Amino acid sequence: MIFSCQICGHQSSNSVAYLRHVKIHNNLPNLVLQCCMPNCTRTFTKCAGLKAHLYRKHKKRVTEPRLSIPVDLTCHVDFCTAKFDSLTKFYSHLKGHIKEGRTVACPFQQCNKSFTVISTLSSHLTRKHRDSGGGNLIESIAVSAGVSGPSGTRDDHDLLSDMQLDAAADDEQFEVFPENIDDSLFFRNLALFYLKLQAKLLLPASTIQTIIEDLQSIHDISQSQLLFKLNEKLHVLGISDEAIRTLIDDLKTEDLFRTHNTHTLRTDQRRRTVFKKQFNHVEPVPICMGQNEAGKESFVQYVPIKQTLEALFQCKSVSDQYNEVHTRAQTKDVFKDVWDGENITENPVQTESLHLILYQDAFEVVNPLGSGKKKHKVLAMYLTLADLLPHHRSSIDQMQLVLLCKEQDFKYFGQDLVMGQLVKDLKDLESNGVVLPDGQVRKGILHSIAGDNLGSHGIGGFLENFSLSVNFCRYCEIDRNTFRTDPLCRATTRTVQSYREHVQRLEGDLVQSGGIKYDSLFNELSFFHVCKPGLPPCIGHDLFEGIVASDLALYIQHLVKVNKEFTYLVLNRRINQFKYQGNDANDRPCEVNPGRDKLGGHAVQNWCFLRMLPVLIGDKIKSPAISAGQIAYLRVLVDEYLHFRKQAFPGQPLKPKHHYVSHYPELIIRFGPLIRLWTLRFESKHSYFKQCARKLHNFKNLCSTLAERHQLLQAYLSAGNLFPQAVAVEKAAEFFPTDYNHSIRESISSFDFGPDNTLIAHEATVKGTKYKKNMLVVINESSEGLVMGKIILTAMATLVDELKEVLLRALPNLSEAVQEILIERIINSGLESREDLRYVKQDDIADLLPVIQQRKLLHAFKLASSQFSSPTTLSVHSCSASNVTEDSQPSSHIQKSWPESFQVPWNLMPTDIRSAISDGKRPSPAARRQMVRVVADEMRKNEANPTRSQCLTVCRNIVQQYPNSFADHLDNGQLLGSGYTSLLIQVKNRIENLNRTSSFRQHRSSGRGEKRGPTDTYGCTRFQPSLPPEETENTVESKRQKLQEIYSREGINGDDRAEIKQLMETTFYLQRCHINVLPAPTIEDLKTKWPYLFSQKGLYSHFEFLTDIPVLRTLELAMEECGKAIVEFFKTKPTNVKVKEVLSLGGDVELSYCVLQLLMAHFSENITDLILLADGSATTADIERTINIPETPRLILLGDMASIQRWMVSLEGHILCEGIQPTFLTGLAALFSTFYTFNLKYQEEAACTLEFIQRRFIGINPERGSKIGRGKVLSKKTGKVGMKKSTTVNPHVSTLLKRLMDFQWDFI
């Protein structure tokens, strides 16, 4: 069989020769090595991985021999006489000894190895004794053992040990053959190695020279020894001295390493010459600008942009991406990339052009102090192409350098001198274009210039003083006074014409006009102007280093100092103790400094802090694709934010960045999603130049040094693949579903995963994003919010096997020959994932299948791709609500649904709404929000939870009735999407908030196990668990007795021991059996059997096992989250006289006790129905003797409320347990636990308060059942006493929950 190298086409006669050959490509960037075996699509980035794969997967294996005579194999480990009838069982037994901590000697003759690690033993047996057979075992193990040929099945031991092999050990398994190495390939690989050292690893030229010389010396010594040995052996063979000298001279001449090291690559200058000739190197051109302030000549290092594009397109992957981007299907009103923005879609002439995105910024290459500040500050401009896929565009390697100069020189010489040559070349690109490798000429158009606000204003000719200038916006002509007075004011948008008018005014004595101080040099281009717009905002600087950094600090300060919700110490402790995963661990948020008016972190740290607020405070998550309706909703949110921000902090004026955010909706329509043009990825490019400066220590001509090194790096990258694989998995193994537990097997049951088509790994990189085990990812969205998933296993199905599966499912009778041709053609067409199957067209397979089969297969491809594609946007289209057209009218005999006949109660609307409607103007954000509340409340009178379709009908009718006030449109009158999406989202969100009983917890379903009754199993996840697999009835009973013995010796204080905790966890099954038995046992009986259950820790632990909820921690978080809000609610809206009495008491009491008092007062329940007070010095016996303790649970507090000394919990007239922490909340947690631990109903006297605690604080919300007993009630109609109706949710509780949500809505 011939094996062909996919990189250079070299052909090898066997797999070993193929492996030896591919090593010559080791230094290629982003190396991808294809498995050389037929029908195997595995790829690798390292030769070691390919070698291990070939050995494990494709090498012919010798299976375990079968013993020919039925003899027993006797264990040879000391004091063990176990016997076995097969090698498999014998090997497993040896591994068991290792688990015991014993040392196991190799069981084969003439092998003295010993092992203490199972994996090492398995690897040794596989590598050394795979072919030994039973006949080579030590005689004491199998005296009469004989061996037959290989059996028909492969031993499990072989499979497991194969998975443990490392690549280094495979060398001994392959025979090495001499092979002729191509001189040019070796030379290229060696040159790439030196280029990698210089350009990528940034070693100084002197260091590289030392490495080369020392390596050559070592190589010469090794060669001398080798030639000496060769000389000796040839003399023994009788070869003449002259022939030997000739042979040795020839060998020296053929030494490739010495030849190139001592000639072509000998010096730094020679190596640079080779680099420039061998690879796509674009030489930076120094352009003299004249003499600077110090009288020295200054240069700008310019990399010719046309040559850069020509070199870039020499890489095939760039051409492929260009074609893919220009043939992609676009969805109307959905913005996924810059290609969906109007800057491109409105100019048909631009569709086939190259679209250039420039970025400029100044950065320090060192961290100077004092007089050295700004001395080495460099201005850089980079280039990327909008014609690349977004995840590749954010890669640093593909970003090209355009120019470098010192920032001081840029300020001194100005834009014309520094960037004049660049603009000249851009004009040439617009007119003449650039010739690509395929011979086609493509014109180049400048799409945009990204940068921070200071840099963008400098490029655009705008004023750069944001704190004092009157006109501070580059998108509109708003002035500072107007913005401070009315942040929502829409000023005149800047246009090309208005810009020119201001520039003409500058011809006089004016320094600036309308915020413009000079005409930008880039406005000379035909297809670009800074006011088209051409200077996109950076959400990193505007939001994360601007608004988030300053405003979030204000909100936190308000919550800490005014509301006193928490302290800075608590918040900073949570920030530091939070367990960050993945990339978040690299950008941990900084602590919040009480003395600063803004957050201290950089943009990514602040972004991380904002995303972590669902755990700390709260936040929302952005989507990578935005629909037109979402843009409209964004505008509503921005207006609301600016309105309420101005109201909340009138003493803190809004900043220019607040105003820039108000332009985001229009700018998204122009540029596409702004995250595609933010500067954070460009700024990462600075790190390369900073490393260069710090490692090379050469500051004499800094810009020249940096530009030269960067261009050498680009030459190195051009030698291989510029972009990494879309999906990359390292250290992967075959996936065997049977090796995993039931939950994993169940989760993948809908997929055809198996060892033939699936790999597993601890991490995988998909389109540049690394996914690791234990990371949390968004997997869906529900009415409750985002559904998160935790990665516990990374599995990847190989593409060929997936494709084959789809083919056979659609066409089961397809021949293997046609299958292979189809697979090869589809793979070669550029298929990267199963999702790409949707792009296969009928023309692609027209010559291989009949028409009907083609259609069947394309239908199967469509289904297969949609099954694995995840929606990235929530687009809202009017057609999704109904198939009926807008102008169609229902027949008179068809009854209208309530949404169609819904009447908006305009008479209940705020005055601002009614005035806006009559004047045809848009209402204020506060008035619009109030209108949404009224509409939602009125809709819920018809249906408690209206569907999105029903909400859509109502909102569409409102917008059609009053389009000027409520339709989604831009300032220029352009309608966004359907025109009513923002109102629809607001109404639907309001309804979902009203129906959500807990803002931060999802509803929990009742347990699925054995059901005893809705009251008993209510909210439990392990009401009656199964017996642990390693236990029996006798063993758990013995452990229960052991607990009794420990209690008899050590008493209740023994529950601190780890052994007690372990025994209680193991016997949880038996505890539930004893509690759940019918008739129910007395508490005294249970206390005798389970003494450690009747402690604070015992109750907490049992409740957590039973419900999966840590009761004390949950209550603490609930009090932090909404305790003060509940108190404020009752202060604002006291619901009855008892509530007012509680509020009037005041006093220094614990917040949780105050909340409980208010709740019981609101529900007209007596505090004594849950809480009893006793003397602080009383004992258990004193309390049981002096207090008439009720049968139902009570929390007994010892001492006064200002200083609780102890607490106890009682049940059935006796003390159940005593607390070890003197706080009210710990006692309340223990009291609540008793209702679930012992299957108790809530006492009717305190049922409402307990159900409120259950639903709002604990978060238990089952779909059926109730813990409230059905009490008796007198019927008004019949006058007879009957049973109360049973309801899932107490109406008094649900009403209070709803009113609290309405109250909290004002603070959102």
TrEMBL record:
Protein name, entry field: Zinc finger protein ZXDC
Residue span, C2H2-type domain: 104-134
Residue span of region Disordered: 996-1034
Species of origin: Merluccius polli
UniProt keyword annotation of Metal-binding present: yes
SMART domains: ZnF_C2H2 (SM00355)
InterPro entries for this protein: Znf_C2H2_type
GO molecular function: zinc ion binding
Keywords: Metal-binding, Zinc, Zinc-finger
